Amino acid sequence: MLTLKTLRENPEHVIAKLAVKNFDAREIVNRVIALDDNRKALQTESDALLGKQKQMAAQIGSLMKQGKREEAEAAKQEVAALKARSTELLAQADANNKELLDQLVLLPNLPCDQVPEGKGAEDNVVVRMGGEEPNLPENALPHWELAKKYDIIDFDLGVKLTGAGFPVYKGKGARLQRALINFFLDRNIAAGYLEVEPPVMVNADSGFGTGQLPDKEGQMYYVNEDKFYLVPTAEVPVTNIFRDVILGADQFPQKMTAYTPCFRREAGSYGKDVRGLNRLHQFDKVEIVRVEKPENSYAALDEMIAHVEGLVKDLGLRYRILRLCGGDMSFTSAITYDFELWSAAQGRWLEISSVSNFESYQANRLKLRYKDENGKTQLCHTLNGSSLALPRVVAALLEDNQKDGYIEIPEVLRPYTGFDRIG
Predict the structure, then answer these.
(1) How far apart are CA 105 and CA 20, in angstroms?
(2) 377-379 and 381-389: which strand pairing?
């Protein structure tokens, strides 16, 4: 959430920056400023009334001592009227402040200066590419046909048990999933991230804290009776560990990693791009989350990008890194880098990670702060990244490592799988 200070200091700058995200903020910004002006006016009047009430209370005591009962009774009636007005002002202030917050949360995060302008994915900037083009056999198969051929992922059984987008992993397919999760977690831990195992359901406060609510409410699965949301990513519970926390200046960086199943409704998704593992309602993902001082957050972002790139390189897959344009960024992000793997069998790039710096946007919603060297309270910066999301990693691994009659397992995974091939 943007701070009032940011809006008040330079509203035209806020409007111009949000235009990079193709978001017309003028009406909301103007409304927020008007509501803030009204908040100040209500507070000024309320303070004046309180001062007058205190003054008259002393006056009533003096009048009573002097035996001037009629004047004292008149003063009491005036105080009662002042109290009634104060109650009215309090109700107005509550309504005003609620609307002020409701308007503030409608504003996305400001994109940083490195974010290119653009409308959508076609305007994203390729930062760099790596890995070699896989040498596939003649008549190479897409992963959903490989999964059926080697009986490692059953999409039809998932439909029977739940519905489309909930596959069942079997045999070596299940072991490959477990191997990837452990490989990613071990690498993250070696890089200094503390492993945590968070709940996979969160309350509305947690959804609000990281910006999923109210922006992505329609994409989240909701448990009606208990008012819990199934997590769309481990970012939500892990980042909320720091909700309402004030860190000391010597408590940085905070680095955490977690594996969770993730649940997304993916409403409106259809067509060939959602076949097989390309887009699921339930999938496994390992996440990294960092909390940093503002002056260190962009160096931390570079470290996270290098870390994720190292994972992809070790898997031997062809990849590219994109800096997202304003029109393709998330609501909460200040800058995002996407990692994509090349699927030679499908002839397309598959997104497998997003690494983002949210600057102070999430921290303001979370009330996540720290005491600087001067003892002053400041907002932290938060960052997160997938390291990695499994479905499309598995899709690329199966497709790009297919040989004549078997699928070769990358060497780095063999200590985790216990086998070097499928088939």
Answers:
(1) 18
(2) unpaired
245 Cβ contact list (under 8 Å, min separation 6): 368, 369
Assigned token pair, 347: 């002839």
- Cβ atoms of 18 and 65 within 8 Å: the answer is no
Alpha helices in 10-129 (DSSP H): 11-19, 26-65, 69-104
Q: Is omega for the bond preceding 214 within 30 degrees of 0, making it cis?
A: yes
SS3 content of the chain, % helix, strand, coil (to 5): 45, 20, 35
Quick one: 373 exposed, middle or buried, by C-beta within 10 A (0-12, 13-18, 19+)?
exposed
pLDDT tens column, 285-325: 999 999 999 999 999 999 999 999 999 999 999 999 999 99
DSSP string, 201-269: EE-HHHHHHHT-TTTTGGGS-EETTTTEEE-SSTHHHHHHTTTT-EE-TTS--EEEEEEEEEE---TT-
259 strand-pairing partners: 286
The amino acid occupying position 282 is Q
**E strand or H helix at 390, and its extent?**
helix 390-400
Sequential DSSP letters for 146-179: HHHHTT-EEHHHHHHHT-TT--EE-THHHHHHHH
- Distance between CA atoms of 339 and 354, rounded to whole angstroms? 6
pTM of the model: 0.93
Per the CB < 8 A criterion, the answer to whether 334 and 358 are in contact is yes
CA nearest to 233, candidates 120, 124, 387: 387
CB 133 within 8 A of CB 349: no
**124 versus 268: which is more confidently predicted?**
124
The region, left, alpha or beta by phi > 0 then psi within -120 to 50, assigned to residue 244 is: left
Secondary structure letter of residue 352 according to DSSP: E
19 closest CA partner among 31, 9, 29, 5: 29
Phi, psi of 332 (to 5 degrees): -95, -15
Cβ–Cβ < 8 Å for 152, 285: no
Helices and strands per DSSP (H, E), number in the chain: 13, 18
**Cβ count within 10 A of residue 45:** 15
271 — pLDDT class (breaks 50, 70, 90): low
